[in-house]
Amino acid sequence: PIISVVGNCSECIKKDEKELKCVNSCPFDAIFKDSQAGRIRVDADKCEGCGECVKACSLERIVDKIQYMPIVNLLKDKKVPVYATIAPAYIGQFGDEVTPGKMRTALKMIGFKDLIEVALFADIISIREAIEFKNLVKNVGDFMITSCCCPIWMSLLKRHYKELVEHVTPSVSPMIASGRVIKKICPDAKVVFIGPCIAKKSEAKEPDIKDAIDYVLTFDELNEIFKALNIDPSKLEGDVSEYSSKGGRIYARVGGVSECIIDTLNKLSPNHPIEVKDAHANGVKECKQLLDKALKGELDVNFLEGMGCIGGCVGGPRVMVDKELGKECVNRYGNEAQYHTPLDGPCAMEVLR
User: Per-residue pLDDT averaged across 94-120, rounded?
Assistant: First the structure.
């Protein structure tokens, strides 16, 4: 399991279950008090790895699985090229002065061959999603559920809303796409994904996609590595290599997926007869509400996006800045992009070819 309880919960176990922050934080009822054993437990069958309990536990007794040592050993093996792919939510997480170029330099100092922005693969997936919408939504009443980037959203659908899976697009997440493309170009490569999301650790191990990403690091884990090695990314020279569009960069905040795919569709097929009417759910509670409406046929939209964390990836359990600041940084970074949509730049289309 990705999430587990460590240490002594003796103080909390004395409280009524209704008073326990970890229990109350879990939107999947996966945390419970085992009074007989005197422990707080995680039901692995119910846990989706969202990380809400990790955030709720002020004593840090609930933790996610850390993969430091395997990654360190991997980086020591100079025979194997190791690539870092980083989620677009990283902008602003390590300070305003840490540019994408400086982050690339810092990761190369650690031992990575290169840094690839996952925003570029969000561009690629957006083009595919726009094509899927064009092919799937042809009549009033049709709707499409984007597989987008959130593993909590996808896990909800697969485990609790199976009747709706037929409406979900077959695209993999940008994280998985990044690993697959890198390994197609460089078959011997290993890929480490860096992001704010604990659930990505589970996604990377799913049987049908497990060969794409070898390990997952969260932002705070990477920050600890920088500290241990006395690396301050803000003081480094930047190694600039940016190809992502505004659309791919704003995947990191709620509504960004919809905005990117709609802009891409409008450019790809400006005369498409069906107007996109989108709804984006913000957090697990809203995700459930939106999917419940879809089950009951109460939707007046044709494009559904869901983010398990409030605010989107900028509100993930392992971010290092407030989600509002994170959103502001992501929007600014999006506006700085050379290309507005994935179709405007050369890279996304080249990879798809």
Answer: 96
Q: Closest by alpha carbon to 290, among 146, 181, 105?
A: 146
The whole domain housing 153 covers: 123-173+244-352
Cβ-contact 61, 78 below 8 angstroms: no
Do residue 279 and residue 327 come from a single domain?
A: yes
What are 287's two structure tokens?
């995700």
pLDDT (tens digit per residue) in 220-269: 999 999 999 999 999 999 988 778 999 999 999 999 999 999 999 999 99
How far apart, in Å, do the first and last CA atoms of the chain sit?
A: 38
Is pTM, for the whole model, over 0.85? yes
The DSSP-derived string for 241-302 is -----HHHHGGGSTTHHHHHHHHHHHHH-TT-SSPP-EEEEESHHHHHHHHHHHHHT----S
C-beta atoms surrounding 198 within 10 Å: 27
CA atoms within 13 A on the CB side of 100: 24
| Domain end residue (candidates: 19, 45, 64) | 64
Angle between helices 256-268 and 118-136 (to 10 degrees): 60
Residues 107 and 185 in one domain: yes
Kindly state the tokens that stand for 239: 């190694």
